[in-house]
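FAQ
Q: What does a multi-component entry look like?
A: The components come first, one per line:
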Amino acid sequence: MTVATRAPSVDAWVQSFTEANNQDPEIRAHGKYFTCSYLLDMEAHTFVVRVVSGTIAQISVDPGPIEVPYQFAIRASAHTWSEFGKPVPAPMYHGIWAATFQRDMKLEGDVLVLMQNLRCLTRQIELLRSTGAPV
Amino acid sequence: MSKISPVTGHYVTVDVDGLEYKVFYLENGQGQPLVCQHTAGAHNHQWRGLLEDPEITASYRVIAYDLPRHGKSDPPENTQWWTEEYQLSADHFANFIVALVDALELVDPIFMGSSFGGNIALQLAHRFPERFDAVIPVEGADYSPGFYLDWWQHPHANAAQVCGSGTWDLMAPQSPEADRWKTWFYYTQGSEAFKGDLYFYSVDHDLRGKLGEIQTNKCAVVLMTGEYDYLTTPEDGARTASQIPGAEFIEMKAIGHFPMSENYPVFKGYLVQALDLIRTKTSVRA
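Then the predicted structure of the entire assembly, as tokens:
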């Protein structure tokens, strides 16, 4: 059985995701060198998340062409991201590796930077389970 | 009650393919040997729940070893292994397990392994059906490409964390957080072996077109796969089982690629089913 949930508005999500990250004990404990910028392409919206020392410094919403630089991109359909936003995601929507191997997610750009930050980034993406996804 | 676990550890010397290994294993229980292989890049603590399970160990002698280069089993004693790239072959992996069974003087063991341990279980059933009463390939398949990646050992990234967090999504969100983090922790310890293990898992292991040759009347085969496994999916497990005459397949719900380590209570329910199936099949054989 699936429970219908309303996706949060973009503005509400930017605030809740930033707060969830910046207060997360795991990221606070291990994020000293978690510094990078990445694109979240959710089909209906795109976001550039800029992280400095584990803190989300800025989330740019629907940036224009070449407006906000980023190092790597995580792209998937709105459907995939909405599945990521459920408290207990269904199989293959439970992480960026799973969805990349088995669904429509793509990891692009400088994937080395993604790998260098993989521990905290994995946790950060899982915060969608509590904030929901804005698509 | 004593705080000392009934699980004991030993070393045994194993000679195979011209290499000498000092192999560490944990064991507990009495009865038919149940030989357990951890996943690639990990070690035998993944079997900690099974090793201390009083019900299973009442009827089975559970033996969980560290494959050489993992945990407390060192690389070979008699080569300059540091001058060569480690790439585990199907031949050597299978020969090693038979040599270990010989060194421990085990009679009619059941072999169970997960992930690359599941794949080698299929290889053992194919190559040495007379040496094993049964095999339980967990998260195994005829072929599992795609994971022999340079990221596991890339000098510009933290290999320990890439191995730990790169395998995190192989576990189910329902599995207890503490057990998932233990499994993550084991993975941080094995980054110098993980990629070489995956040479077997994703490159050298290929039983496509050969599954029909497996003789389950000599060596029973019960495959088990978790629904959150994105590498060897339940579809892969079911397909593999369907091509082995007489093999059984069990899909495990709400669990992933490291079932014995990420959620032993859930895994145990399915393991009991598998062991019952094996008892039924081998009693018919007798």
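Q: Is there any commentary attached?
A: Sometimes. For this entry: The domain at 8-285 of chain B is CATH 3.40.50.1820 (Rossmann fold).
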